[in-house]
Amino acid sequence: MPRRHISVTGAPEAPLRAALTALRTELGVPDAYPPKALAEAERPPTLPTYDATDIPFFTVDPPTSVDLDQAMHLSRQGTGYRVRYAIADVAAFVVPGSALDEETHRRVMTLYFPDGKVPLHPPVLSEGAASLLPDQTRPAALWTIDLDAEGRTLAVDVRRALVRSRAKLDYEGVQKEIDGGTAEEPLALLKVVGRLREELEVARGGISLNVPEQEIVERDGGYELTYRAPLPADGWNAQISLLTGMAAADLMLAHGTGVLRTLPAAPDGAVGRLRRTAHALHIDWPHHVSYAALVRSLDPHDPHHAAFLQECTTLLRGAGYTVFRDGNLPTLATHSAVAAPYAHCTAPLRRLADRYASEICLAALAGEAPPEWVLTALESLPHEMAEGGRRAGTVERECVDIVEAALLKDRVGEVFDGCVVEVEERRPSVGVVQLESPAVIGRIDGDDLPLGERLRVRLLQADPGAAKVRFAPA
């Protein structure tokens, strides 16, 4: 499910800070790294011999990000294109079986809180020595993927290499340069290749959800919730990561050993429920139009469409990790939203499984067996990732609840304009309302809740330390 970005700048107010601290304790979130793990994070990495520092890579991330997993360079190759995608080589720093390795298996993935993050790796690595920061030479797993004129994959290579990023770009800046015609060719091709890959996604029946992000911004000494609709550049950038994840999955399946990100097709009942939600939100969904085609037609700037896109994320529940070995291929090898085999391999600084997928792919291209430490960990990896994912999901939900309560704690009793975006089937008196302003999504209790309709709602409670935000029809 797409993660809602819930970043807060500045020092949170005392009630919010206290509630977030209590949440960390309640969820047993890892705190400080063991001294031995920190010491191991300082060790110099194992450097590759292949030097690709002459390639002018660039990164595209949120402006405040410093844990940079990926850097890219795009060029024309005959009538097609060449995608070079450098992924931070975490295995160059983390020794299998070490205290640092054990700590990453305890943490599993980076957790995002409004007042900061709890990283998978010590910041000295994730924000320093292993991060693909500009003007720094770094070890990486360098993917080279050649595409034809329509964006289809022709050839794939991955090898360890030294790389050097030249620029740290952000989505808004990238969009502005491309739209203004000032982008140099490696960046301008992001739009060209991204659109080609989006067209191929449509052809194979894949789905990319442009769900508006719920963001918290500092303003006038306080905080304000806003919605941010993704830019086209967000989607083009995501297509490069998807391309690499699909190439990794194909490599592992051909090699007979791997770890895939899989998602079964949504049951008919779930799609039927979405059809009812679309009707309630006044979204026209003719029976001859597929779910994938409908999603691509939606405008995330439209409040009704944004609400429906948020509901569409329910079909992504059930995604998991599937491992296989020694040529025993899994029964389910595809991700239904990608509509192809797919693997997580592009975010090893923030997600444990990606380090293992990268090692298997490197071995496959070298014609070698995966390292023994990879094979030993494979069996338990899906369970570890599932537990880590559940914890990350809980952190996200609870943090949004806490921040919304903190922002509204002095407004209990006030009336707001909103839209009911969800009503529970088994309990039709319980639903979810999305306010027009501020950008709050909260529980509403009342009889005959009008799904998809605007209504005035009264705030009944908002206490960041004890209760979630709750509304009732005014």
Please tell me about this protein's structure.
The protein is α+β, with helices and mostly antiparallel strands and 474 residues long. 36% of the residues lie in helices and 24% in strands. The chain has helices at 14-27, 35-41, 99-107, 123-129, 171-180, 185-204, 232-255, 268-280, 291-297, 303-312, 352-366, 372-378, 381-408, and strands at 57-60, 70-77, 80-88, 111-113, 116-118, 137-147, 153-169, 213-219, 222-228, 258-262, 320-324, 415-423, 430-435, 441-445, 454-463, 467-473. The strands form five sheets. A five-stranded mixed sheet has the order 1-7-6-3-2. Helix 1 (14-27) runs antiparallel to helix 13 (381-408) and helix 7 crosses helix 11. The two termini are 32 Å apart. The model is unreliable at 1-5 and 7-11 (pLDDT under 50).
Fill in the keyword field for this structure.
36% helix; alpha+beta; 24% strand; 474 residues
Q: In short, what is this structure?
A:
With 474 residues, the protein is of the alpha+beta class. It is built from 13 helices and 16 strands.
